[in-house]
Automatic annotation (TrEMBL):
Gene3D superfamilies: Winged helix-like DNA-binding domain superfamily/Winged helix DNA-binding domain. It comes from Acinetobacter bouvetii DSM 14964 = CIP 107468. GO terms for molecular function: DNA binding; DNA-binding transcription factor activity. It holds the Pfam family HTH_5. Keywords: Arsenical resistance, DNA-binding, Transcription, Transcription regulation. GO terms for biological process: response to arsenic-containing substance. It comes from the Bacteria. SMART domains: HTH_ARSR (SM00418). This is HTH arsR-type domain-containing protein. PANTHER family: ARSENICAL RESISTANCE OPERON REPRESSOR, TRANSCRIPTIONAL REGULATOR, ARSR FAMILY.
Length: 104
């Protein structure tokens, strides 16, 4: 991953909020992200698709749920930038997931 692609992908506030939530809280399901960011599932899913395509996030399925985490092959410098940014980021509220069955 080059710096241009990485920062261009994170230049959108919603995508930055998604990644910061995952960095701060770990792997998250879509319902966690929609609750925490106060946005609709289709909007969050569209941004997640761009983050996956950009190589920043990867997903895994567990039953009907999809969980997102930082991509395993994300370079160390990307992790460093994200960790440094996470401490100063406050773009989401920590709300409980609206469907607790996905978070068991």
């Amino acid at each position: 991953m080059n710096q241009d692609e990485f920062f261009k992908c994170l230049a959108d506030r919603t995508r930055l909020d998604i990644v910061m939530m995952i960095v701060q809280e770990g792997e998250r399901c879509v319902c966690d992200l929609t609750a925490g960011l106060g946005m609709s599932q289709p909007k969050i899913s569209r941004h997640l698709a761009l983050l996956r395509k950009g190589g920043i996030l990867q997903d895994r399925r567990q039953g009907q749920w999809v969980y997102y985490r930082l991509h395993d092959s994300l370079p160390g410098w990307c992790h460093d930038v994200l960790q440094a940014s996470a401490g100063a980021h406050s773009g989401f509220q920590q709300k409980a997931c609206v469907d607790s069955s996905c978070c068991d």
